[in-house]
Amino acid sequence: MEKQWETYLGNDLGVTYTSEKAIFRLWAPTAENVKLCLYKEGDGDCLITTADMTKSKGGTWMLERRADFAGIYYTYLVTIDGVTRETVDPYAVAAGVNGKRAMVVDLLETNPDGFLDEKGPALASPTDAIICEVSVADITNDATSGVRHKGKFLGLAEKGTKSPQGMPTGLDYLKWLGITHVQIMPSYDFGSIDEADTVTEQYNWGYDPVNYNVPEGSYSTDPFHGEVRIREMKTMIQAFHAEGIGVIMDVVYNHTYDIEHSCFQKTAPDYFYRKTETGYSDASACGNEIASERTMVRKYIIDSLKYWMTEYHIDGFRFDLMGVLDLETMQMISDELRKIRPDVLLYGEGWTGGASTLPDDVRALKANISKIKGIGAFSDDIRDTVRGHVFYHLETGFINGKEHYENDIRYSVTGATMHPQVDYRAYTYTTTGPWAANPAEVVNYISCHDNLTLWDKLQTTCPDATEEELLAMNRLGAAVVLTSQGIPFFLSGEEFGRSKPIEGTGELCENSYNMPRFTNNIRYDAAYAHRLLIDYYRGLIAFRKKHPALRFESADQVRMQLHFDDNAPDNVVAFWIETPEEKIYVALNANWEKKEVKLPFDGRLQVYVSGEKAGCDILYSIAENTEILPKSALIAVQSKQMDD
């Protein structure tokens, strides 16, 4: 029988601060004694004093002191089973270098001018979002970025930055692309970077959480003073919002950096982690997994998310290995966060990195996503059918050589929802059939930080392809994603053929989480070299924004208004969408030859996407029969006014 734990549902865990007093409250229900340690600095031998805390309700320990504690660092000495260990506060919102000591901070003093009144852009529907994934460390760090604060929060707040060729970089570049949201890879305090070492080149994606509610110090200009990283992260978010770009935070509540040194383990041993008969369950493939179904773990996750939303004005969250978390917790997250902001974007990876002790039917897996409301999941269906399976490097997909994949592409065009023109018996990737109740539950992508970049996958599967042929396949992949129902997503750099080479080897890196900056940096000279590909992405993004028929909210709309052409040639997926205002015709040709299609309705259409060009300007007109160029998309529109 599982041990019974005292629980505390109050909202004052951590430090409650005013200039007159501070109240410290820690949940440590099995502790025999807890002491508060106060320090002048976030590191070094600078202890001010220690004080005994008092056992309080719900398994908490409390201490109240009258003084202005702003700028004071603190830890707890927690004694359990006769063993005393020093720990940071799990509810810390500020910390010193490397997150070893929490800090009492006046959060109002960390706000940039105007921050209290600023907010992210409103979102009428999740499917209106167009998301680009970036890392703070990647996008401004290269010498070609022209950014002063390279690899820092402040670097992404700089305006007017340009590459040597005069192309916009950093924040201006993302604005120029036309995206609606940026998904920022982990930017809470993670454990793999020594923040005190500002000389040695260090790099890590950051999927190794230490302090969940504290910004990462290596992304600040001063990791030694806890208030600096807070102000600078807020400055970055405010800068994105000023450009009309929402900020989605990549969060990792499925595991911690380690168990032994975790503040959770030091304050409530084994409560926060799922266990097996012989050790710890490891569905994260990182050595542990969080027991999200337990009351105080669930409370912690929800409290943390609410804090980021209210204090930092975060517009959405991407959940790493969401399949480790339980469905009830995810539904509560959606319900609670929508009380703060109804249009918050919530989605995650609907899978795990290994087996879990929690039964499959209660976990937030892709197969279960329709059981809850307001949460989306990444579609590995579209990723692997378009470009080939990510774990089988030589396997191809629709754009790079796999034939007779028309039905598989139809599955993703419909946003993984039920559609009468998709043969689910012939579809083998997800054998249970369509998994989404509506398109808003589906995040469509063909590249992210994990695995080979799209360009590197194309190079690997088509080693004899010319650069022009690689560009054509890249464009076709983008057209599939940006004309499919659901939420489009892409890795920063996909739009210019981003590659991740391993220096001096000629090899390509599929898992660059700790590789040098040479492998990971966004190179704006490479972007300039492929600026026509960037223009194609910009054009597709602008076209999608202009046409609501590509952004349906309900599965019924998709079923009733999206129709496939059953007479299209082999290796061509053609469909049209009818609305009261217009008809949009899309043809995706995966052949290396031109293909002729007969248009499924009468009248002339204006072509906006063809070959290397995409956008909101008319390229030419078509009627009856038309040719689709090799490895390309054709998108045309017939407006109601044209019929009239």
Topology:
Blueprint: E1 14-17, E2 21-27, E3 33-39, E4 47-52, E5 54-55, E6 60-66, E7 73-80, E8 83-87, E9 102-103, E10 131-134, H1 136-139, H2 170-177, E11 181-184, E12 188-190, E13 209-215, H3 226-242, E14 246-251, H4 263-267, H5 295-312, E15 316-319, H6 327-340, E16 345-348, E17 376-379, H7 380-387, H8 406-413, E18 442-444, H9 454-461, H10 467-483, E19 487-491, E20 501-502, E21 507-508, H11 517-520, H12 524-529, H13 531-546, H14 555-561, E22 562-564, E23 572-578, E24 582-589, E25 595-598, E26 605-610, E27 613-614, E28 620-622, E29 625-628, E30 632-639, H15 640-643
Parallel strand pairs: 10-11, 10-19, 11-14, 14-15, 15-16, 16-17, 17-18, 18-19
Antiparallel strand pairs: 1-2, 2-6, 3-4, 3-7, 5-6, 7-8, 7-9, 12-13, 20-21, 22-23, 23-24, 24-30, 25-29, 26-27, 26-28, 26-30
Helix pairs in contact: 5-6, 7-8, 10-13
| Proportion in helices | 10-25%
Structural class: alpha/beta
Q: Report the strand count.
A: 30
Question: What's the overall average pLDDT, rounded?
Answer: 97
Q: Kindly provide the radius of gyration, computed on alpha-carbon positions and rounded to a whole number of angstroms.
A: 26 Å
Distance between the termini: 73 Å
Q: How are the strands ordered across the major sheet? A: 10-11-14-15-16-17-18-19
- The low-pLDDT segments are none
Query: How much strand content do the residues show?
Result: 15-25%
The main β sheet shows up as: 8 strands, parallel, barrel
